[in-house]
C-alpha cells in the first residue's frame, strides 16, 4: 500500500458467535426499511443489547422470496438461546407490527431456530399453516390483511468483534475516513457493522474500577487521557474511532478489513489519518486473531 | 454424462410393472440391464424389453412410452425422470422426491400416496389422482403435482398437505375428505366437489363452489404473490398468473376451516 497511513503491528481479537439471517419484505422499500431499521435498533453490542444486528443488503424484487422489495438482516449472539429469544421478540415487536411486511428465513441448515413458530399464536386460532417446498409458513390475520412468516430460520457459527481503530489528527477527518470505510463494505455479503452508522466512538476495555461494570472506556485510546494513563496515542492524535465487523466466516471479516483499510487510504483526507490499529485483549479472550499487516499484504 | 434412455424394443401386449426404475439411481448400467421384469407370465431382463443407452441414472428418459407401462416413477426418491408418451396406472405413486415429467396422458391413480417431489403430467390423467395408496388412509402428504389437462373422478381424496394444480377440469367426487393442503383448479369442477373437508386452501376459477362460503372483505394477501412466484419458479413456466383474487371462507352449513380464493 502506497499510503502514508501507519498500520500497527497488532491484531483484532474476535469471538465465536451464533448468527442467523432473516429476509424482510414489504410492499415498498420504504416500509421494508422501517421494519429492518426497527428490528436492528438497539442491537449494537451483546454487552447490553443481547444481540448484534444489522442490515446486510437490500433485496431486489427478483431476489426476494415474494417478489417485493426487502432487506436481508443478520443477527449475531453469544448463545443459541439468546439468539432465539432476541429473534422472536424483535420479529414480534418490529416486523409483525410494521404494515405490509412478511418475513422469511435467509439461511438453510440442520440447526433451525424458531422464527414464526411461536408468533403464530398471535393469530388466536385463526392462523393458517402452509407447507411449501418443504418449509412451513404461517399466515397470521392482522388488520392490514395477513402477516406471512416462515416457521423457522437457520443458525450457524459465526465470528463477532473483528475491528479496526482509526487514529486521526481531528474529528472531522476521522469521521470522513470511517464513512469511506463503511461505504466500501456496505454491500459486502455475510457481514454487518452493528454500531450506529457502523462506527463506534466509545470503544471499551474489559472491566472497570467499579465492580458492577463488566466494561469501561478504552482509556488507552482516549485522547483526553493521554497524559494520565498508559496511552497508545501519540501527541498529534485528536480523535479515535472504531469500526466493528461481524461476519459469518473468518474470510468475510478479512475481506472487509482489507477493503475498509484500502478505502481509508484512498480518501482525500488520508494525510490526516495517522494510524490504523485494532482492538484486542492481549489475545486471552477471543478465539480469533486478525493480524492487520497480514491481511493487507 | 448422457441421460439413461430406455426405449421399448417391442410393442407391449401385457401390462408392465416399471416400479424398479426408481431403484436405478443406486445401480450400475450393467446391473440395470440384467434386472428382471415380469412380462405376461414370463420373467424377462430389462435389456430384452428395452433398448438402453446412456449412463446417468439420475437423469432417466423413457421414449415411446405407452399406457401399458404401470408404476412409472413409483417410490421415486431423487433425480429426474422424463417420459415421452403416455403412461399406465399408478404413475409417481408414493414418490418422495425428485422430478417426474410425463409428456403425455396417464391412467388412474397418478401420484397416489405421494409425499414429496414434483410430478408434472403434460396431458390428462384418469381417476383417483393423488388418492390413497394401498396401505394408507391418506392421500397426498406433500409435494407438488401439476396436471396440465383434465383429471378424472375421485381426484385428490383425503389430501393431508402439498400442492395440486389442475389446469383443466376435474370429475365428480373430487377433493372429498381433504384434511389440509392447497388445490388449484383453473377449469370446471365436477359434482359433489370438496365434500366433508376439514381445512385446506382452494384456488379456483369455477365460482359454483363459492355459494356455500361467506365472502371475505377485499384486502391484500401476502401469501398469494409468494405462492404464485414459488409455483412459477418451480414449474419453470407461468403456471399461475398474478391476477386478483377474491377470498371466501367460513362454510355456511358445515363447520370447517377451509378457505377459497376465486381467480377473478
List the helices and strands and how they pair.
The complex is a heterodimer of chains A (297) and B (264).
Chain A lengths: L5 E2 L3 E16 L2 H11 L12 E8 L9 E9 L2 H16 L6 E4 L6 E3 L13 E5 L2 E8 L2 E6 L1 E3 L1 E13 L2 H15 L5 E2 L6 E2 L3 E3 L8 E3 L21 E9 L2 H17 L6 E5 L10 E4 H4 L2
Helix pairs in contact in A: 1-2, 3-4
Chain B lengths: L2 E6 L7 E2 L11 H6 L1 E4 L2 E4 H4 E4 L2 E10 L3 E2 L9 E6 L13 E5 L11 E7 L20 E6 L15 E4 L15 E4 L15 E4 L8 E3 L7 H13 L9 E7 L7 E5 L1
Parallel strand pairs in B: 1-6, 2-7, 6-8, 8-9, 9-10, 10-11, 11-12, 12-13, 13-14, 14-17
Antiparallel strand pairs in B: 1-5, 3-4, 15-16, 16-17
Write a structural description:
The complex is a heterodimer of chains A (297) and B (264). Chain A is of the alpha+beta class and 297 residues long. Chain A has helices at 29-39, 80-95, 171-185, 250-266, 292-295; strands at 6-7, 11-26, 52-59, 69-77, 102-105, 112-114, 128-132, 135-142, 145-150, 152-154, 156-168, 191-192, 199-200, 204-206, 215-217, 239-247, 273-277, 288-291. Chain A folds into 2 domains: 6-13 and 159-295, Alpha-Beta Plaits; 18-156, Alpha-Beta Plaits. Chain A contains 5 helices and 18 strands. In chain A, strand 14 (204-206) and strand 15 (215-217) form a beta hairpin. In chain A, helix 1 crosses helix 2 (80-95) and helix 3 (171-185) packs across helix 4 (250-266). Chain B has 264 residues and is mainly beta. Chain B has one domain. In chain B, 9% of the residues lie in helices and 31% in strands. The chains are: A alpha+beta (297), B mainly beta (264). The interface between A and B is medium-sized, with 21 and 22 residues.
Quickly list its features:
heterodimer; A: 297 residues; alpha+beta; Alpha-Beta Plaits; 2 domains; 14-stranded mixed β-sheet; two-stranded antiparallel ribbon; 5 helices; 18 strands; 21% helix; B: 264 residues; mainly beta; two-stranded parallel sheet; 17 strands; 31% strand
Amino acid at each position: 500500500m502506497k499510503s502514508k497511513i501507519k498500520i500497527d503491528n497488532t491484531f483484532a481479537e474476535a469471538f465465536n458467535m451464533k448468527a442467523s439471517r432473516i429476509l424482510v419484505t414489504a410492499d415498498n422499500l420504504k416500509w421494508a426499511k422501517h421494519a429492518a431499521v426497527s428490528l436492528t435498533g438497539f442491537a449494537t453490542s451483546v454487552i447490553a443489547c443481547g444481540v448484534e444486528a444489522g442490515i446486510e443488503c437490500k433485496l431486489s424484487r427478483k431476489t426476494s422470496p415474494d417478489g417485493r422489495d426487502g432487506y436481508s438482516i443478520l443477527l449475531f449472539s453469544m448463545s443459541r438461546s439468546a439468539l432465539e429469544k432476541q429473534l422472536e421478540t424483535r420479529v414480534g415487536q418490529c416486523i409483525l407490527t410494521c404494515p405490509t411486511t412478511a418475513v422469511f428465513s435467509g439461511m438453510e441448515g440442520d440447526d433451525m431456530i424458531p422464527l414464526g413458530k411461536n408468533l403464530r399464536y398471535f393469530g388466536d386460532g385463526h392462523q393458517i399453516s402452509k407447507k411449501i417446498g418443504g418449509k412451513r409458513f404461517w399466515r397470521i390475520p392482522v388488520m392490514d390483511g395477513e402477516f406471512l412468516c416462515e416457521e423457522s430460520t437457520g443458525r450457524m457459527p459465526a465470528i463477532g468483534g473483528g475491528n479496526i481503530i482509526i487514529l486521526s489528527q481531528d474529528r472531522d477527518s476521522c469521521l470522513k475516513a470511517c464513512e469511506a470505510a463503511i461505504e466500501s463494505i456496505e454491500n459486502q455479503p455475510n457481514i454487518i457493522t452493528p454500531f450506529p452508522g457502523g462506527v463506534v466512538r466509545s470503544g471499551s476495555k474489559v472491566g472497570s474500577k467499579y465492580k458492577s461494570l463488566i466494561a469501561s472506556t478504552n482509556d488507552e485510546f482516549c485522547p483526553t487521557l493521554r497524559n494520565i494513563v498508559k496511552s497508545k496515542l501519540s501527541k498529534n492524535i485528536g480523535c479515535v474511532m472504531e469500526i466493528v465487523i461481524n461476519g459469518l466466516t473468518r474470510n468475510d471479516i478479512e475481506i472487509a478489513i482489507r477493503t475498509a483499510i484500502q478505502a481509508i487510504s484512498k480518501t482525500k483526507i488520508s494525510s490526516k489519518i495517522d494510524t490504523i490499529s485494532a482492538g484486542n485483549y492481549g489475545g486471552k479472550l477471543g478465539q480469533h486473531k486478525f493480524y492487520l499487516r497480514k491481511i493487507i499484504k | 454424462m448422457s441421460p439413461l434412455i430406455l426405449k421399448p424394443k417391442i410393442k407391449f401386449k401385457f401390462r408392465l410393472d416399471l416400479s424398479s426404475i426408481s431403484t436405478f439411481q443406486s445401480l450400475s448400467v450393467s446391473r440395470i440391464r440384467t434386472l428382471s421384469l415380469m412380462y405376461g407370465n414370463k420373467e424377462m431382463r430389462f435389456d430384452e424389453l428395452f433398448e438402453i443407452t446412456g449412463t446417468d441414472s439420475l437423469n432417466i428418459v423413457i421414449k415411446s412410452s405407452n399406457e401399458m407401462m404401470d408404476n412409472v416413477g413409483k417410490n421415486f426418491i431423487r433425480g429426474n425422470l422424463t417420459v415421452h408418451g403416455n403412461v399406465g396406472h399408478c404413475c409417481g405413486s408414493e414418490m418422495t422426491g425428485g422430478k417426474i415429467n410425463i409428456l403425455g396422458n396417464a391412467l388412474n391413480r397418478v401420484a397416489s400416496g405421494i409425499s414429496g417431489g414434483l410430478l408434472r403430467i403434460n396431458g390428462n390423467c384418469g381417476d383417483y389422482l393423488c388418492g390413497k395408496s394401498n396401505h394408507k388412509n391418506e392421500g397426498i402428504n406433500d409435494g407438488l403435482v401439476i396436471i396440465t389437462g383434465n383429471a378424472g373422478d375421485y381426484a385428490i381424496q383425503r389430501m393431508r398437505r402439498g400442492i395440486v394444480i389442475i389446469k383443466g377440469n376435474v370429475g365428480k367426487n373430487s377433493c372429498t375428505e381433504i384434511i389440509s393442503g392447497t388445490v388449484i383448479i383453473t377449469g370446471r369442477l365436477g359434482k359433489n366437489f370438496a365434500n366433508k373437508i376439514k381445512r385446506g386452501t382452494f384456488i379456483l376459477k369455477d365460482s359454483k363452489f363459492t355459494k356455500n362460503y361467506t365472502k371475505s372483505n377485499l384486502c391484500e394477501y401476502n401469501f398469494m404473490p409468494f405462492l404464485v412466484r414459488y409455483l412459477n419458479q418451480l414449474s419453470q413456466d407461468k403456471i399461475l398468473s398474478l391476477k386478483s383474487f377474491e377470498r371466501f371462507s367460513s362454510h355456511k352449513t358445515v363447520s370447517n376451516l377451509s378457505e377459497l380464493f376465486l381467480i377473478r
